[in-house]
Automatic annotation (TrEMBL):
<dbReference type="InterPro" id="IPR050895">
    <property type="entry name" value="XK-related_scramblase"/>
</dbReference>
<keyword id="KW-1003">Cell membrane</keyword>
<feature type="transmembrane region" description="Helical">
    <location>
        <begin position="33"/>
        <end position="57"/>
    </location>
</feature>
<feature type="transmembrane region" description="Helical">
    <location>
        <begin position="203"/>
        <end position="222"/>
    </location>
</feature>
<feature type="transmembrane region" description="Helical">
    <location>
        <begin position="174"/>
        <end position="196"/>
    </location>
</feature>
<comment type="similarity">
    <text>Belongs to the XK family.</text>
</comment>
<dbReference type="InterPro" id="IPR018629">
    <property type="entry name" value="XK-rel"/>
</dbReference>
<keyword id="KW-0812">Transmembrane</keyword>
<feature type="transmembrane region" description="Helical">
    <location>
        <begin position="126"/>
        <end position="154"/>
    </location>
</feature>
<keyword id="KW-0472">Membrane</keyword>
<protein>
    <recommendedName>
        <fullName>XK-related protein</fullName>
    </recommendedName>
</protein>
<keyword id="KW-1133">Transmembrane helix</keyword>
<dbReference type="Pfam" id="PF09815">
    <property type="entry name" value="XK-related"/>
</dbReference>
<dbReference type="GO" id="GO:0005886">
    <property type="term" value="C:plasma membrane"/>
</dbReference>
<feature type="transmembrane region" description="Helical">
    <location>
        <begin position="234"/>
        <end position="252"/>
    </location>
</feature>
Amino acid sequence: MRGAVPRLSLALLAAESGARLCAIIHYFIRGQLGWFGLTIACLVPGYAAQLLSILWFRADGHTPGCWLLTLHLLQLGLWKRYWDVSRAVSETGGTAGEVLAQLGDVCVLRLLEALLQTLPHLLLQAYFVVAVDPAGFIPGVSAGLSLLSLAWALVSYSHFTCLLKPGHLSPPAAVLLCLLLWRTGMLGTRVLALVLFARLYSFWVFAVAGLHWLLMSFWLVAQQTDIVAQPCRWRLFNCLLGAVYIFCYINVRPGPSRTRVAVFYTVSTRDVLCSTWM
């Protein structure tokens, strides 16, 4: 199952990128330059993951050459990492510690890229389909693949954290499928609620999202998460994770998380019901 995860991740990443390129071409051909520019702008945050990937290559002792730098400039750095992991798994059976480390690197990088790049693209295309052109097939397909790819990035990250636990084997396909359905449903409802709210109340959606972000950030500070040691970086981490919590829950603390999950979904469900009622 370990070999199937990076291969499926690479396939979804390629499908999402292809659909995004089709959406860009679609807007350009139809003369919708505003949407064309916004869709391209969603690509820019993804370079944070590409830059981090280069730094990690250097930290692992691999001097980035022109070919590797070109791949990352074209935002294909994670494609290479997935390819390397898939090839390593096929050669070693996925039992070597180095293969697990490579899998962990690409899972974390893909999750970062999905949150910084895929999520804004998903929101943009979903708003276009709901509020501008409900018959827009290409933006709709792009939004659907972005949602699936983002959900799978969360699932593959959970899969990797499960492998890190002593004595834990790779989860079966049925477990990963249930996780994928859960993440897709949760993200889909959150995105749909925000898009519908934005359609009805325009820029007031930023006030609602900002209030939720502040609430989640203060909640994270109250939990005293120690994943980051430096005070300034610790505050920045909590602020960034608070923004992520507008859409989905990511466990960053060891130990049982039932209470934290219950609090998060209670607040999130209330927000969805309020947005739908309004």
